[in-house]
Amino acid sequence: MSIGQWSEYINTNVKEIPPSGIRKFFDLAAEMEGVISLGVGEPDFVTPWHIREACIYSLHKGSTTYTSNHGLLELRESISQYLGNQGVRYNPQDEILVTVGVSEALDLALRTVISPGDEVLIPTPCYVSYIPCTTLAGGVPVTVATHMEDHFKLTAGKLEAAITPKSKVLLLCFPNNPTGAVMSREELLQIAEVVRRYDLLVISDEIYDRLTYTGEHTCFASLPGMRDRTITLNGFSKAYAMTGWRLGYAAANAEFIAAMTKIHQYTMLCAPITAQISAMEALRNGKSAMEGMVAHYNRRRRLILQGFKEIGLPCFEPGGAFYAFPYIGETGLTAAEFAEELLVEEKVAVIPGDVFGPGGENCVRCSYASSVEDLTEALERMGRFLQRRR
Ligand code: PLP
């Protein structure tokens, strides 16, 4: 059989999905020397030592087995307490599922609730997985564009305008990747009112909840009436600098969790035990190390915003996560041209905003999870780049 024919065997949903727009830039940057990357959405810190130590100790003790499908009960109890502190109670026995990152939790949640043809409302710009994972689950992604003028916030009006009889799920992410937008409790209450009126289900990805710099994070499920129609996703990658450990969780009413666990038990069995033990340490004793990292991100956030101001790049002030999403429309370049030319000419890697969906066309994503030295140098290079285009 020739190579060409093998593509006949590939599932049509998989064929439809475009390759990640982010990867292309990583690959380009990896081939060059002296590149400062503001491209990756990953903490530049190593996991705090006490968390790594807990892992080492667990290995010494011989904790090398599977755990229950749901995850270690002690970890679920810590997660339940963590969410309880945000105003929403989940029973650790059957309302929390420990997963391999938020990535797995997202995939499970979508596959659990979507029947073929169901529409998933996705405010954009959004995390790159949302649209392809919806398609893979057999759903129809319906994007709801947000814009810089509205501070990249979803409004009740925009949401309502996108709802059809096939709408089933709203996929929320605040603080947002890639814009850094946050939503206040009052703003989320207006969204909740539409959710209730149209009987939607919400998947709320709150992986950046601790990385909130302006005001308090509101857990969507804690809003009146939202607990039983929300699947809350969260994890350890961002707040505790644990991307490589691959640990996250979903919290929802017992019926959703039982259904998600059906898929999880056959596909993943359980999350890695070493990561689970380490996550327990993170939740029990990791608050001050986490807050220290968050303080660093906040200083860098101010630095990059000030830098953009000085070089004349308009940028909405992000209230969370570790991304800035400046507007590059005034250069006359598309986001892809801007990112490519900046990389080639000044060796700074940023991600074109359109890879995150409608609303991101004239912006680029810059991660400020980088050292102050790198950020300062990157801003200088970007300033030179802009000067040449004026
Ligand atoms: N959700 C969002 C919004 C993200 O930005 C990311 C990673 O960048 C993920 C989920 C994936 O997280 P995890 O490492 O827990 O799989």
Would you give an account of this structure?
By secondary structure, the protein is an alpha/beta fold. The protein folds into two domains: 3-47 and 288-388, Aspartate Aminotransferase, domain 1 (Alpha-Beta Complex), CATH 3.90.1150.10; 49-286, 3-Layer(aba) Sandwich (Aspartate Aminotransferase, domain 2). It contains 14 helices and twelve strands. The chain has helices at 3-6, 12-16, 21-30, 49-61, 73-84, 101-113, 130-136, 156-162, 185-197, 254-267, 273-285, 287-311, 335-346, 372-388, and strands at 36-37, 96-99, 119-124, 140-145, 167-173, 201-205, 230-235, 248-251, 323-324, 348-349, 351-352, 364-367. Strands 2-8-7-6-5-3-4 form a seven-stranded mixed sheet, sandwiched between helices. Strands 9-12-11 form a three-stranded antiparallel sheet. A two-stranded parallel ribbon has the order 1-10. Helix 5 packs parallel to helix 11. The longest helix has 25 residues, at 287-311. It is globular. The protein starts with a helix and ends with a helix. The mean pLDDT is 96. The structure holds pyridoxal-5'-phosphate (PLP). Pyridoxal-5'-phosphate binds next to helix 6. Pyridoxal-5'-phosphate binds at residues 41, 101-103, 127, 173, 177, 205, 207, 235, 237, 243, 248.
Structural class: alpha/beta
**Mean pLDDT, all residues:** 96
Tell me the helix content. Answer: 40-55%
* Gyration radius, rounded: 21 Å
Extended strand count = 12
User: Between the first and last Cα atoms, what is the distance in angstroms?
Assistant: 56 Å
Tally of helical runs: 14
- Report strand %: 5-15%
* CATH topology value of the largest domain: Aspartate Aminotransferase, domain 2
Shape: globular
Low-pLDDT sequence parts: none
Number of domains: 2
CATH class of the largest domain: Alpha Beta
Give the strand order of the largest sheet, numbering strands 1, 2, ... along the chain.
2-8-7-6-5-3-4
The CATH superfamily of the largest domain appears as Type I PLP-dependent aspartate aminotransferase-like (Major domain)
Could you say what the CATH architecture of the largest domain is?
Answer: 3-Layer(aba) Sandwich
Cofactors and ligands: pyridoxal-5'-phosphate
Helix and strand sequence: HHHEHHEHEHEHEHEEEHHHEHEEEH
- Largest pleated sheet: 7 strands, mixed
